[in-house]
Amino acid sequence: MKVSKREYLNSNLIGNRLFELRKKKGDTLVEMENAIGHSHSIISRWERGIYIPSVFALVALAEYFEVTTDYLLHLE
Fold first, then answer.
1. Domains of the chain, start order
2. What 3 state SS string does the chain have?
């Protein structure tokens, strides 16, 4: 689902996408922590929509999941 530019920073949309990708990959928060270098507690907060990942974290997440940052932000 593509959303408007105003809506793309909706932390819940980003969090849901991260959660879905992690579950699809079959990884735990700790496995993801080891792969991208961010603590599992921060990753959990991203997934729950409490925090929005930084630009640097978005790039690491995109590489980890083999998707684009636009996909993570619901821009494509």
1. 7-72 (1.10.260.40)
2. CCCCCCHHHCHHHHHHHHHHHHHHHCCCHHHHHHHHCCCHHHHHHHHCCCCCCCHHHHHHHHHHHCCCHHHHCCCC
